[in-house]
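Exercise 7.
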Amino acid sequence: MGRVQDRVVVVTGGAGGIGAAACRAIAAEGGKVVVADLDPIAAQLVADGIVADGGVAESVAVDVTDRAQVQAMIKKAVDAFGELNVIFNNAGMNRPRGFMEIDEANFDQIVRVNTWGVIVCTQEAARQMIAQGSGGKIINTGSIASRQGFWDFVPYCVAKFGTLAVTQATARGLIEHGITVNAFAPGVVAASLILLGILGALGARVGGAGMLRPTLRVLVWGAFAMAVTAGVGHLFGSVV
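Solution. The predicted structure, written as tokens, is:
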């Protein structure tokens, strides 16, 4: 039995990079995954791959800044699997520009996706979890830019600093419902290495996984385990 056996997990930004790696790792540990992404074809491919490997997955198209679409995403999870246990708010984007070239449109787009999207998804997931009455877990993707400013990434830094603020604020407000909220803040790593790191942490036989630095394996799987493992309920408002 896997560490997240039968837990229903929605992963936004689930069609690529960290999100796709998370979907595959969670499914490999027995979780039921909803691969949610702005790109429905890519999301379906990830879900199909999980099912082909013996896992359980569905896919759904979602723009995390659109509340109606986020509500439909939550409904898809509940209709497919009966409940929602975890949401991994991973969807994000960046359009790097030097500080002097930032304009309002650039700033608004980055903050809207990376921070407003987390707020909307957290609100709608929390409503479902509160209605179920059995708690839940929310994990948000931060960044090294959540803690440090960069000249070419100022809107992204603002957005990711904001993600950590949302994490800490909602952790305080939702703990009374048995819902924990945490975040992880990775540095710049290749998506393929993240995938290898997760699978390596799960003990899968993946060529080259043994060459990864232990810190990468610990960071990636540790972050997801913090969110999705049923027995981990003492952490809230934390950043890995």
